[in-house]
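input
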Amino acid sequence: MPPARRAAGLFAGLALGLAVLAGCSSQGASTDCGLDACTVTFERGVDASATILGVEAKLVGAEGDQVTVEVAGEQLTLTTGQQATEAGGFAVTLDSVTDQQVKIRVSRNPGN
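output
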């Protein structure tokens, strides 16, 4: 097998492995995950949720620059620019909110 083809196969296998390891799935949302953190972009006006890092994140509501999300079974009210709020061993921040989307970042707390 040529080295380029072998490298492509290895890369595809690693990408698949990371996707399985992150365990991301979503409905009405898109995710961008690494090993210890995910950015979730929720579509507004739909029942939006995502399973990331082994927990569910769900958009509950949004008004102005304030949103309510549920992460790991805990409801949080977040405002753009505020420090991270903890929920179930995760740090959650609100990255942005528009008329169409809400974007949050969920990361594992280093001590957990």
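quick obs: The beta strands are 25-27, 29-33, 37-43, 49-52, 55-63, 66-71, 74-79, 85-87, 90-97, 101-108.
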